[in-house]
Write a structure and sequence with these properties.
Rossmann fold; about 250 residues; alpha/beta; two-stranded antiparallel ribbon; globular
Length: about 250
């Protein structure tokens, strides 16, 4: 498009996707452009995260559905954690997986397996199963050692957090972690009011405690919710309905 200038975030995304490909560390699904990129060493990063106190102490973990975090989901189930997984693009809300009711943990850690072996739940039902998530694991395209993060550009991790915050299933103290390749670490990133900061960054080679002081969104920023988003993301409609019921 003539005159189009990508945002700083988009420039960084494109640079990281290109770098992962050039260094031959990107793994399927491909193309990685437009995705939370899968990478060599994702399993090692997941194992390191599983040994961190925020993971070890957690009883309920919310993990993104992307490929590089599949091993995080598998280890969560293997170690007996209740798992909350958003459906892709939040189109069907959240999937709840109880390891006590899952026979094939390896399969359940895949997107297809989670749909088949887990339970698709609305917000009200999710609140009946869990009181609060103890840890959030988000996928990232790039992250700084100080906790700023960018995803693939859809804003889904931010929306998931905001929705769960509205339901009091997470709060400002809920730790947020990410697993990335070392090449996905950058010095600086823009940070906006709807963005979620990262507390723990785990790569195949190291664990970084960000000690971030970046603010967390207190909930859904409704001024940024479009009619299309309301139409496509069912939990937003449910959240509005619950708000109306509460106001009565």
């Amino acid at each position: 498009m003539s005159g189009y200038k990508p945002s700083k975030k988009e420039e960084i995304r494109q640079r990281i996707w290109r770098l992962l490909e050039e260094k031959r560390v990107a793994l399927p699904p491909k193309p990685i452009y437009g995705r939370i990129p899968n990478f060599m060493g994702a399993e090692r990063a997941a194992l390191k995260l599983s040994q961190h106190p925020v993971f070890a102490k957690a009883k309920v973990i919310k993990v993104n559905p992307d490929s590089p975090q599949r091993e995080v989901r598998r280890l969560a189930l293997l170690y007996g954690k209740l798992l909350i997984m958003p459906t892709p693009r939040l189109r069907r809300g959240f999937i709840f997986l109880d390891p006590a009711r899952v026979r094939d943990i390896d399969f359940a850690s895949t997107i297809k397996g989670a749909f088949m072996l887990g339970r698709i739940v609305g917000l009200k039902e999710l609140k009946e199963f869990v009181k609060k998530a103890d840890l959030i694991v988000a996928g990232s395209v790039a992250v700084t050692p100080y906790g700023a993060r960018v995803g693939k550009g859809g804003g889904y991790s931010e929306m998931e957090y905001a929705v769960l915050r509205e339901m009091e299933l997470v709060d400002e103290k809920t730790p947020i972690a990410t697993t990335v390749h070392d090449l996905q670490l950058v010095d600086e990133l823009p940070f906006e009011d709807h963005d979620i900061p990262i507390d723990v960054v785990v790569t195949p080679t190291r664990i970084l405690e960000t000690h971030t002081n970046l603010p967390r969104p207190p909930g859904v920023i409704w001024s940024k919710v479009t009619a299309k988003m309301l139409d496509e993301i069912s939990v937003l409609k449910e959240l509005q309905q619950l708000g109306r019921e509460k106001a009565r």
